[in-house]
Amino acid sequence: MALLALPAFDDNYIWLLHDGDQALVVDPGDAAPVREALHRLGLRLTGILVTHHHGDHVGGLAALADLLQGPIWGPARETLPVPVTPCSEGQVLRWGRHTFQVIEVPGHTAGHIAFLQLDAAQPLLFCGDTLFSAGCGRLFEGTPAQMHASLQRLAALPGDARVCCTHEYTLSNLRFARTIEPQNEAAAQHEAWCQARRAQQLPTLPSTLALELRINPFLRCGQPTVRRAALQRDPLLDPEDEAAVFACLRQWKNEFR
Length: 257
Hints:
The chain is an alpha/beta fold. About 35% of the residues lie in helices and about 25% in strands. The protein is built from eight helices and 14 strands.
């Protein structure tokens, strides 16, 4: 199976998975890059996965209706602009010979879901705006405790899972991550690699969960270095409370320039 990151808007990626004939797309906020790729590669669009209801993830759904020869799977707890097959925790979806598990990850939005490919040697994790490389999504509808719990669920997945998030935020996230853990050598090395990729206008994604566990402060709230940084930011914080550490980091990131 081939995996493509189709650039959209200023910094979105629409993920396209194909076998040379059938294609599955994830979070098509814009129909134009999807239509172009399908035409260029001679593919049939036979499925769409949607992680949450924000416009930059669903805006192209209606304009792809004439090409679609299969279902649109989307979150059961959210309202989308077109009819979808509703998905909730633990469901297993079948697309051709491939299977995807639905994981509910509220926080960015109340009904956000992720999709984990189950049948690949190196699984694919389509996580929308919940987990970013070296970062995580803002809390528009959920609580810090919800988002922390959602990230912990993703962190427990296989380390070789490829993290297919939907925004090219990696370098700005790494600037924040290195502020939290300035001695984190893995983050420094990854930052240099990402700078080289972006200089060539190439994506920094997908990442892997194993890498994120080394560089992403939002997955490292139990690490002493991250706890110390949060405590310096908020001396009244209980550093043993990982959800409180996460909440401190998320607010810090909101204000970070």
